[in-house]
Amino acid sequence: MADKRVSDITLREANLSDMEALLLWRNDALTRAMSIDTRELDLPTHQQWFTQALNNERFYILIAELAANDERLGMVRFDLEADLSKAKISINLSSQSRGKGYASRCLTEAIELFKKRYRQCDAILAQIKTNNIGSIRSFEQVGFCLDATQDNQDEQSDKLLSYYLNLGNEYE
After folding, report:
1. Reported pTM
2. Is 171 part of a structural domain of the chain?
3. Domain with 43 in it: what CATH number?
4. Which pLDDT tens digit goes with each residue over 50-85?
5. pLDDT tens-digit series, residues 112-145
6. Is residue 172 one of the residues assigned to a domain?
7. How many domains does the chain have?
8. Domain that holds residue 154
9. Cα–Cα distance between 19 and 29 in angstroms, integer?
10. Backbone phi, then psi, for 98, in 5-degree steps?
11. Phi-psi bin for 116: left (phi > 0), alpha (psi -120 to 50), beta?
């Protein structure tokens, strides 16, 4: 797959060399606090999941990097339903990349790449904790709408907001 440029950002598919960076970002204290699953993961557990995810068409993991020096900024992940008609999206930026305006740009371009690859997908869903203001703003900025019919909580009873993005069939 060719890299996709977003001004100073490059998006590419994840590979095995990204495993440790993703684990580091996943175990970051703020990431865990904003995640539905707040457990810290060990390397063997992450390694098993990541290896399987890379070889499963239902997972699409993109790595965002600075174009100038290939510094990893974060990742955008899509988890597709079995029939590939819907996907859940998540984003995780490295602690050094937060607050710099990268999230919405990464989301926009990741969604464009996703739509080209998974043309049969009708909607992308996101679940965001109510106190994760940065993610709420980023997802709303790229066109996600709040689904007021959903009332969810995570394992710690934190309220979750459900957002969705309906996809057009512009690539068919």
Report:
1. 0.88
2. no
3. 3.40.630.30
4. 999 999 999 999 999 988 888 899 999 999 999 999
5. 999 999 999 999 999 999 999 999 999 999 999 9
6. no
7. 1
8. 4-166
9. 18
10. -75, 150
11. alpha
Whether residue 157 is contained in a domain is answered as yes
Q: What's the CA gap between 61 and 18, in Å, rounded?
A: 10
Residue located via tokens 């557990």: 45
Domain assignment present for 23: yes
- In DSSP notation, 15-63 reads -GGGHHHHHHHHTSHHHHHHSSS-PPPPHHHHHHHHHHHHT-TTEEEEE
pLDDT at 70: 81
Q: Which amino acid does the sequence have at 141?
A: Q
Residue 168 DSSP class: P
- Paired strand residues for 77: 61, 90
Average pLDDT of 9-14? 94
